Amino acid sequence: MSSSANSNGSSPNAVSPDRPVFALVDCNNFYASCEKLFDPRLKTRPVVVLSNNDGCVVARSAEVKALGIPMGVPWFQLQAQARKHGIVACSSNYALYADMSNRVVEVLSSFSPKIEVYSIDESFLDFTGFERQGYTSYGAEIRQRVADWLGLAVCVGIGTSKTLAKLANHCAKKSHAGADGVCDFTVMSEPALVQLFARIVVGEVWGVGRQITARLEAMGIKTVLQLRDANPETIRSRFSVVLERTVRELRGISCLDLQEVDPDKQQIMSSRSFGAVIYELADLEEAVASYIAKAAEKLRAQDSLAGAVQVTSGPTFSNRRCRSTNGR
Amino acid sequence: MLESAALFGPGIVVPMPHAPRLALPLDTVKISAGFPSPAADYEDKRLDINDYLVRNPVSTFFFPVEGDSMQGAEIFDGDILVVDKSIRPRHGLVVVAFVNGERLVKRLYRRAGRVALIAENPSYPALEIHEGMELEVWGVVVGKFKRFVT
């Protein structure tokens, strides 16, 4: 962990001045933190934020995560636990989250001229050429500024590619590496990174979803380290050029510039669970029709065409997400 | 009264992020109400209310006031406070503070080991902050405003 953080081996992440460096700044438990920020009664309570129709959990405070309550659970299934642990449910207030998100972005913009707002609670910052500041302390400064000015906690991940910055952020959040919410891969030695990457499952890598994870695991690639050290040509032929790029990014070769990835264009989700269990087919049909209309609206708004439409319905699954974190 | 600002749950209003600027000329003739003009520096200039009250919009929030405990500091029921989180709370400043699940407006006392939140009204005792009590100074009150005619 951090014991070997400062021994400079022949790390492929060692930074020369012209090498790109990225930071990913991510707000911790964003929606729940926004709710807690203004309400002193919520400070130490477990807080969940519910989807628009108060159907299911779309955000959890750290206390709720510690209770093991997964994302997407319908609220009516949580009544017993809520009473037992004093869980507070807040209706989602997207005006508040959007305002706080804009403020975070505004603060971050004063730290780098190039910023990509990746989602409502995550932004990439270009740190290239900032080596004299010391990336780690610059990241700590960002964290402190957001805490002081906005009262929100963020984690900062730093690496020589966006994929590494995202992974470093994950490590900062889970306290796998780094300290005080900042994890900087650029100051870690190669042996330290090898040790770290061998402990993280491959599914945590940005862009490696559930299906790719399953296929990689079938090939024996189970950890981040194994994916990083996989043959790029093999990955390209068995998967795609996109995953090959991920392999290179994990090696510290930056292939993705800021703003290059736009995940919204790939898939549009319009789904949620019902406030109560429904029994009539007509109710289900009506809901499906309105969700499809909503998805089509989003599709038109981004000028895309749909290649396929998938409709799923079923009994309540506890870890199905019911609403996108982007909120609108 | 607050319809032009976004209302955020109980008692919190945020400034409009990009409020339209409206600079109006300041009258050079002062109105006699027994106090010096707080806008003296702006004489013969144009004054924008946002600029005057909000120095750091990104860290500024508005809080409506309830109660009379701060009337000695010219803070009255129904006033809207301008609270700036970017200002470091110091002894003597009026602050918004969270104590034991309550949101309060008080003057911060922090001298010689004593930490207290002082009301500006003789009928309210000072709230002493003892070991084990949780005090969070949320932000510094930098100003207030109120509209009389709706």
UniProtKB/TrEMBL annotation, chain B:
EC number: 2.7.7.7
Gene encoding the protein: umuD
GO MF terms, alphabetically ordered: DNA binding; DNA-directed DNA polymerase activity; hydrolase activity
Name listed for the protein in its UniProt record: Translesion error-prone DNA polymerase V autoproteolytic subunit
Database matches in Gene3D superfamilies: Umud Fragment, subunit A
Protein family per UniProt: Belongs to the peptidase S24 family.
Organism ancestry: Bacteria, Pseudomonadati, Pseudomonadota, Betaproteobacteria, Rhodocyclales
Top enzyme class: transferase
Limits of the Peptidase S24/S26A/S26B/S26C domain: 30-142
Organism: Candidatus Dechloromonas phosphorivorans
GO biological-process terms attached to the record: DNA repair; regulation of DNA-templated transcription; SOS response
Keywords assigned: Autocatalytic cleavage, DNA damage, DNA repair, Hydrolase, Nucleotidyltransferase, SOS response, Transferase
